[in-house]
Design goal:
heterodimer, A: 3-stranded antiparallel β-sheet, about 40% helix, about 25% strand, B: about 140 residues, two-stranded antiparallel sheet
Chain lengths: ~375, ~140
């Protein structure tokens, strides 16, 4: 051991990158300032020693004690966190915010984003906003992923037999994981474009990407319509990743699940369906789709419409997603001005009637 | 890096097969196990939710680990970016975090002050010591 005596504010240099400065001494404690590169860990000796002790102690752990705690925790296991992905309206709200309001980048529109992110804890909203500001690429990735499954997916009329559809898809899927299918013989679901097979293939790929060796596909007729679940034994997702599934452009980069599931969510809107995801890190993921009843196809053909609405919102998104060209009249008297400019456009006052009602009524 | 499953002789489980995706390389060795540089994360059905961090170099070194949030839902380690430098990380979201389980009186305790931080895609891991944190080194689990 090298022994050197130093006065206050004198330094020691270790190697060519580490400098230790004596800041002062009081009673029997010495204050040191350390300048070291990022990759050099500086830690107090006694803490390192305790970590070492704990690490060594872990080797002598009694297996019985471990199993007892494991069993106990299985008994009082909390409900698996389950995230319901917000409707496409919320997603589009977020995107339209990004596209139209980029000029307001740092202005206080955060309230609107919080609405879009629904019930994310405050910290995650903040984190989400930061990433959103700095990472437009994430948005592009998501849009591409959506395009892959077909963002204009919809029910095309007619039905398919779910069991046959599942069997055909699983038969053609070239993954390595063992897939078992459990489905009643007679379960008809609305035909869609892209088909259920494309969506299922996507989910199987997801599961295998997560390291699954076994994938269970179960279909049943539940209270809320046909339920289709895909359960894998892959790496699963931690709580933070699961929470992030609510936010469209934030995929957990390691496995790209976020963006994939969002396109599935989009596809499901054709069925008025829902997507639920439950996952635990190290145990696997279960994706459940509720294939609701097929919605009535709108009677009104896409056209130009002047939307009388106090604020751009769900109605605007819904109309645009159905191919309508929307002129937004937010202010008093604006609708009349727009009508003069676009005489061919129809006027919809959402204060007076609902969008669904309007869509299902014949046009001009 | 290994590209195919390898057989590994362990003291606790005998000979087992290790998937390449389960192998983690340590930038800094675990305190106490300076000879081991590579570990495998073993997720064995019978011990779930516990997993094992098995040394690839020393058959008798096998640490029980667990997802800390299962027992401490409020746990939020502050992983300084400096501490993550050796994992070559850009963001925390790509990480898996496990804590080491050790005996404690009649039961078990978790080391919340020094979580094992793993980057699954890159196959790197690090035991990060949270200096000046409020988390204990041996927090009882029951």
């Amino acid at each position: 051991m090298l022994v050197i005596s130093r006065k206050s504010n004198e330094t020691l240099v270790v190697g060519d990158k580490i400098e230790i400065r004596v800041l002062g001494a009081k009673n029997d404690s010495v204050r040191l300032g350390i300048v070291a590169p990022r990759d050099v860990t500086v830690v107090r000796g006694e803490i390192l020693e305790k970590v070492r002790e704990q690490n060594l102690a872990s080797l002598s752990l009694d297996l019985k004690a471990l199993q007892r705690v494991a069993e106990k925790s299985a008994e009082k296991r909390r409900e698996i966190p389950c995230v319901e992905i917000p409707g496409v309206g919320a997603v589009q709200e977020t995107i339209s915010w990004l596209v139209h309001d980029v000029r307001n980048f740092l202005t206080p529109v955060h309230g609107e984003i919080q609405l879009a992110l629904l019930d994310c804890p405050e910290g995650e909203v903040r984190e989400g906003l930061q990433s959103m500001h700095s990472n437009i690429n994430g948005l592009n990735d998501w849009l591409r992923a959506t395009a892959r499954l077909g963002s204009s997916s919809g029910v095309v009329g007619g039905t398919v037999n779910l069991k046959e559809e599942l069997a055909a898809t699983v038969g053609e899927w070239l993954g390595k994981a063992v897939v078992t299918v459990n489905c009643p013989d007679y379960l008809e679901v609305p035909k869609s474009d892209p088909g259920l097979g494309a969506v299922l293939t996507h989910l199987l790929d997801n599961a295998e990407e997560a390291g699954a060796t076994e994938i269970k596909v179960v279909a049943l007729r539940g209270e809320r319509g046909v339920e289709l679940s895909i359960k894998d034994n892959g790496v699963g997702m931690d709580r933070a990743s699961l929470e992030r599934l609510k936010i469209p452009m934030f995929s957990t980069k390691a496995n790209h699940r976020g963006e994939g599931l969002f396109s599935v969510r989009n596809w499901l809107t054709g069925f008025a369906g829902k997507l639920m995801v439950a996952s635990r890190l190290g145990e696997g993921t279960e994706v459940t789709m509720l294939l609701g009843e097929a919605p009535v196809r709108p009677a009104r053909k896409a056209c130009e419409v002047i939307l009388k609405a106090p604020y751009r919102g769900a109605a605007h998104n819904l109309l645009e997603s159905q191919g309508f060209r929307v002129y937004l009249a937010e202010l008093e008297g604006e609708a009349e001005i727009l009508q003069r400019r676009f005489p061919q456009a129809e006027v919809l006052d959402i204060g007076a009637r609902s969008v669904d009602d309007w869509l299902n009524s014949p046009g001009k | 890096m290994i590209s195919a499953p390898v057989a590994l002789v362990t003291q606790r489980f005998g000979e087992i097969s290790i998937e390449p995706s389960a192998v983690f390389e340590l930038g800094t060795p675990l305190p106490g196990f300076e000879k081991s540089r590579r570990f495998a994360l073993l997720n064995l059905q019978e011990f779930r939710p516990f997993a094992w961090f098995q040394s690839m170099e020393e058959p008798d070194v096998c640490l029980p680990v667990v997802d800390p949030w299962r027992y401490f839902p409020e746990y939020s380690p502050n992983l300084a970016l400096e501490a993550l430098a050796s994992l070559e990380l850009e963001e925390e979201s790509e990480l898996a975090i496990y804590c080491v389980v050790a005996p404690h009186e009649e039961g078990l305790c978790l080391n919340l002050a020094a979580p094992l931080v793993m980057h699954q895609a890159r196959g790197r891991a690090e035991q990060v010591i949270l200096d000046n944190s409020d988390y204990g080194l041996a927090v009882p689990m029951e």
